[in-house]
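Example 3.2
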Amino acid sequence: MKSRFAVPSVVLLLILSVGCNRTHRYPMQGEVVAKNAAANEITVSHGDIPGFMDAMAMPYRVKAPAIIQEVEPGDKIAAEVVVNGNDRSDYWLDNVRITDKSGRGKMRPQPGSSMLMPGAHVPDVALTNQDGRRIRLSDFAGKAVLVTFIYTRCPMPDFCPRLSSQFARIHDELKKNAEDYKKMHLLTISFDPKYDTPAVLRKYGLTYLNGDEAGFKHWDFASTNQSDLHSLAQAFGLQYAEDGDLITHTMNIVLIAPDGTVANYWGTNWTWTELMESLQHAARVNKSAS
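Structure, written as tokens:
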């Protein structure tokens, strides 16, 4: 005899599905260090968020346009971090409240205050890649280049490992088209030049290239000295700070056009297909113009 309290399997699956899709909310307090109204993002320096992440400064999407207009660097805020239950890389701020405005105008200039606008030429700094070879951004003239910043010791799976994994997907897709493959390049730059030596970067890179060394012809993993790293951070609107083995940093992906100028930026709100299609478009526009 069936129990009158038995739950039909279809209903049970629906209940489980709803539970898996549920968002999670985490209280957060911090200080606004930058805002990007065009991207609906504010960068917040905050303490530990138990269950989500350690203390750091990073950009967050804000879905309420009025909040973006209201907050200013130096403001202290309280908010909730809302995280998609199925995708911890999909998160945003809700219920943002300014708790203290006394810090407005008192903050020191942050790296990124001289952020290059689209169309500006990027600084041609020297980098050392995974093979110990000196390279420069100008070496990629005529190619569209997608650049991101990571450090190999990053313990947060939704940050540096996510960036590298998504770049790996782009690389694998580009390999399918020889014409695209030779007109585009990927570049990963380390925030941690003291630890991320060429040998470390090579081992790290091979992890994302499935052990295929040939991939380094189209995807470089590189570091530079602290001075040039600071210059790149300013140029590309990045903030970072060392705290022992942990480096707190914001996220920014940069698309460099074949003529060596900034074509586009992405913070936290992007997909790998969007990045790849933008990279392909930049390369093809250059080919059409030549």
